[in-house]
Protein: Leucine-binding protein domain-containing protein
Organism: Planktothrix agardhii CCAP 1459/11A
Amino acid sequence: MGVVGHFSSDVSLEAGTVYEKGQLAMISPTSTSVKLSSLGNYIFRTVPSDQLAGQALANYLTNKSGLQKTAIFFNSSSNYSQSIKNEFTKNLAQNNGEVVAEFDLGNTSFSPKANVDVAISQGAEVITLLPNEKTRNQSLQVVQVNQGRLLLLD
């Protein structure tokens, strides 16, 4: 017996600890958080972790676009969003890129226009969007207020 799921890394991490304790296998087709790899012997995924995605995003930014400075928009209360942000940031630094600003899409005082303006004033050349399912609308607002001023990476 086993479980197929869950959709989000947040739910998979929470449920995975229970499944692991009960020695019930779980396989997730979509959860990418790096933390999932260390939950135990009964927890699996069918997709690569955020380690690979973070590396690919950083390589694209620095090697393909030729740009180095980014502002990151993420959700600090999401394991997925934090995981991909951490992996991207680590790999970006290894590629001599720089995060010039970070903005929490889940913050109750989040202001897309003000945050994009701050990103530009801090020297950002790129906006990196790393939302989770709960902050997709805020992410779309960032795209709208950016009005093509900065390259978007998602």
